[in-house]
Predict the 3D structure of the following.
Amino acid sequence: MKGRKILVGITGSIAAYRVCDLMSELRKKGADLSCVMTRSATEFITPLTIRSLSGGKVYTDLFQDYDGVLHTTLADESEIILIMPASANVIARLANGFADDLLTSVVLASKSPVLVVPAMNDNMFRNAFTQDNIKKLASAGFGFVEPVKGPLVCGREEVGHIAPTEAILSRLESALKRS
């Protein structure tokens, strides 16, 4: 992990706080982190928190002040893109080729591997549209760390709970070894 350039995409989910533990582990291992937060992600966790834990820059807007072309620069500089947590919304937008915010623009502009870590309500995760979108992305080469059965914010204990940090870290390390 030492010196590996990882772009972490954080989307709008209550599970956004879980990226903090993962980023702390990645920093301990010497990873070089950059982060892109969707507008919805900033409702759950602040860019200041992410910047403090990642030790890297945090980007939130496709049109923020930047010398150069931000989305292509981030795409070119990243060895891998980790989307954690990945909401049903971002999965759908990516599966259908949307590039309407910074995160989706970076992903579409990148040739790097993408690892997606879904987290959402069980009904949303099992929804036929979501499952079709996941299949589309998987067939395009995106990797996935499947959600597990666990407590959901709605009060149920079902599949949709974000995978354990150790499982995500292991999958990320494997993906980096292959790249």
